[in-house]
Design brief:
Blueprint lengths: L12 E8 L2 H12 L2 E4 L8 E5 L2 E8 L9 E7 L3 H10 L3 E9 L3 E7 L5 E7 L14 E8 L2 H12 L2 E4 L8 E5 L5 E7 L12 E7 L3 H10 L3 E2 L10 E6 L5 E6 L12
Parallel strand pairs: 1-4, 5-8, 9-12, 13-16
Antiparallel strand pairs: 1-5, 2-3, 3-4, 6-7, 7-8, 9-13, 10-11, 11-12, 14-15, 15-16
Helix pairs in contact: 2-3
Length: about 270
C-alpha cells in the first residue's frame, strides 16, 4: 500500500478537500463508496471532518461558508514550502488569490487560488499535517487533472508558480493532453484541453480528483445507490476503466480502476 509520512515535494498534489452544503449526506456517501472512516474535527474546526483510510488521512469534508458563491466541489491542494510565496507568485502570474494564506492551527498554512482561466486550487504548507497519507490505492486519490480551454496559457502559469514541466501524451488533434512533473521530475498529474474533446463551453475550468477503486462498474452502481450520479457508463481507457461522477451535493470527481488498464497511472511519491 503506497503511504507517506512526510511533507510532499513542492508542486505535488498533497491533499483533497470537499466543501458541500450537506455534510451529513456527504459523510454517509463517501463512507459507503470509498470505505472511509470519517472523524469529527475539534469544535474550533468549524464542522470540518477528516476522512481516513487504513488509519491514514486521505481527504477532508467541510461545510460551505455562508454566502459562498461557488458550488460544492472537491479542491486539490498542492504542496508548498512557503504558501505566502506561492500565493504571491500566482497573483503576479495572473491568478486570483481568493483566500490569502492563513494558519490552520498547528496543522499547516493554506491559501486558495484561481488560475487565469478560473480553475480553483489550494496551496498547503505542511505543519503537523503533511497531507494525504495513502494514495494510488482503492479508496484514495490516485490522479489529479486540470480541465481547461486555455491550455497553453495555464501551462505557463503553473510552470511559473510550481516549476512544473510537461510532456504531451495526446495525439495533438483529437486529444490535447499533457502530464506534468514536479520540481523533482516526478509525474504527478495531467492537463486536458476541454475545447478539443467536446466539453460544453458552459463547463468552467476545474481540477478533477480521481479516486482509485477496485471495480469501476461496481463503484458506479454504488454511486447511484448511495445518492450520487454518474456521467454515463464506465468506459475503458489505457489507464483503467473509469467514470466521472457527482456526489450527493453535486461535487464532481472521477473513479478509476487502475488495475484494469494497459498502462500505469504514473505513481506519486
Amino acid at each position: 500500500m503506497p503511504t507517506r509520512d512526510e511533507p510532499w515535494p513542492d508542486g505535488t498534489p498533497c491533499w483533497v478537500g470537499a466543501q458541500v452544503d450537506d455534510v451529513g449526506a456527504a459523510r454517509a456517501f463517501y463512507a459507503g463508496l470509498l470505505g472511509w472512516e470519517i472523524h469529527d474535527g475539534p469544535p474550533e474546526a468549524g464542522g470540518y471532518l477528516m476522512a481516513v483510510r487504513d488509519g491514514r488521512p486521505v481527504a477532508g469534508l467541510g461545510p460551505m461558508p455562508e454566502g459562498e458563491p461557488m458550488p460544492p466541489a472537491w479542491t486539490t491542494y498542492f504542496a508548498a514550502g512557503d504558501a505566502d510565496d506561492v500565493a504571491g507568485d500566482a497573483a503576479d502570474a495572473g491568478g486570483t488569490v481568493f483566500v490569502p494564506p492563513f494558519d490552520v492551527f498547528d496543522l499547516g498554512r493554506m491559501a486558495v487560488v484561481g488560475d487565469p482561466a478560473g480553475a480553483v486550487f489550494g496551496v498547503w504548507q505542511a505543519g503537523s499535517h503533511h497531507g494525504t497519507g495513502v494514495f494510488n490505492e482503492p479508496g484514495a486519490p490516485c490522479w489529479h487533472e486540470l480541465h481547461t480551454r486555455d491550455y497553453a496559457s495555464v501551462q505557463e502559469f503553473y510552470a511559473v508558480v510550481f516549476g512544473w514541466t510537461y510532456r504531451e501524451i495526446g495525439d495533438g488533434e483529437n486529444l490535447i493532453y499533457s502530464v506534468f512533473a514536479n520540481v523533482e521530475g516526478t509525474v504527478v498529474g495531467g492537463v486536458c484541453d476541454d475545447a478539443v474533446i467536446g466539453v460544453p463551453a458552459q463547463v468552467p475550468a476545474h481540477w478533477l480528483t480521481w479516486f482509485a477503486v477496485a471495480d469501476a462498474d461496481d463503484a458506479a452502481e454504488a454511486t447511484v445507490r448511495l445518492g450520487g450520479t454518474v456521467g454515463g457508463e464506465p468506459r475503458d481507457s489505457p489507464f483503467g476503466r473509469m467514470v466521472v461522477a457527482q456526489g450527493p451535493c453535486g461535487e464532481m470527481f472521477g473513479l478509476i480502476d487502475p488495475a484494469s488498464g494497459r498502462e500505469d497511472v504514473p505513481p506519486r511519491g
